[in-house]
Write a structure and sequence with these properties.
Elements (H helix, E strand, L loop, with lengths): L1 H9 L13 H12 L4 H18 L2 E7 L7 H6 L1 E8 L2 H10 L3 E3 L12 E7 L8 H11 E12 L8 E3 L5 E3 L19 H4 L6 H9 L3 E7 L11 E8 L2
Parallel strand pairs: 1-2, 1-4, 2-3, 4-5
Antiparallel strand pairs: 5-9, 6-7, 8-9
Helix pairs in contact: 6-8
The chain binds S-adenosylmethionine.
């Protein structure tokens, strides 16, 4: 119950207002794109990888879904836990999430309104390219986890899920020299889909793993979903355990 208390006390403190998903129009578009439109297969792949991640850590108690959006993965999380909270800084997306679930709150992933050492597992899906301060998200996740707690991440694959990875004939991918170029991640590189509307943070493998070097989070499992389908992976899932 003390976790709920914290959420109520500090839920209004969002340091970085969301200009992308914070727009009602974009939130509406994103919800239908990802739940019933062209983004649906990707959403299903994320859910499948999240299921696989949970097999590494088995059933857990309280889970916090950081950057939960409209809550597309809360059902999966519920199957593996006894209590789920979701946090996001997009009010329109949270409005949708709260119609289906209780326990969703407004807040900043880089300044979680949660007590130290109070969460059994943190989940975050598809936030690597959205939360500018990735390293801070990871350190905040570490702070709120109990000892031996779990961090489950499903993200666009840094190597094969960005603008440098051009899908070519036969399902192959050609990785261009733009791999580490921040400008390649501008909205103009994504003429269709969510990135053209909300922009995107550059992703490289280095940026993904860097925050963990100075943490007490240990890599427990890594999955690129290669068993789910053929071809280069567009997603990367990792499971970390807090081992102080
Ligand atoms: C691509 S969406 C992913 C939503 C959901 N997790 C999913 O898998 O569909 C990225 C989400 O991150 C949220 N987000 C971005 N920066 C954030 C921050 N600093 N604090 C909280 N949420 C943030 C956005 O509002 C959005 O809901």
């Amino acid at each position: 119950m003390h976790v709920l208390h914290w959420l109520t006390e500090r839920a209004h403190r969002v340091t970085s207002p969301d200009e992308g998903y914070g727009s009602t129009e974009i939130a509406q578009w994103y919800t239908s794109y990802s739940s019933s439109g062209k983004g649906r297969p990707l959403r299903n792949d994320v859910a499948a990888l999240l299921e696989i991640c949970f097999h590494s850590c088995s059933r857990v108690g309280t889970v916090l879904d950081v950057g939960c959006g409209y809550g597309p993965h809360i059902d999966v999380i519920r199957r593996h836990s006894s209590r789920v909270f979701g946090i996001d800084r997009s009010l329109p997306l949270l409005g949708r999430a709260s119609r289906a679930y209780d326990g969703v709150i407004y807040g900043d992933a880089t300044r979680l309104p949660i007590q130290d050492g109070s969460i059994d597992a943190v989940v975050s899906t598809m936030t690597f390219t959205d939360v500018g301060e990735w390293a801070t998200l990871i350190s905040e996740a570490e702070r709120v986890l109990v000892n031996d707690g779990w961090l489950l991440l499903v993200s666009p694959h840094p190597c094969f899920g960005g603008p440098a990875a051009q899908r070519i004939a036969g399902g192959d991918v050609r990785v261009s020299g733009a791999y580490s170029s921040a400008s390649a991640w501008g909205a103009s590189s994504f003429p269709r889909g969510i990135r053209s509307k909300v922009g995107s943070q550059p992703t490289t493998l280095e940026r993904y793993f860097e925050p963990f070097h100075s943490s007490n989070l240990r890599l427990w499992d890594l999955n690129e979903g290669l068993g789910l389908k053929d071809g280069p992976p567009s997603l990367l899932a990792t499971v970390w355990r807090l081992c102080p």
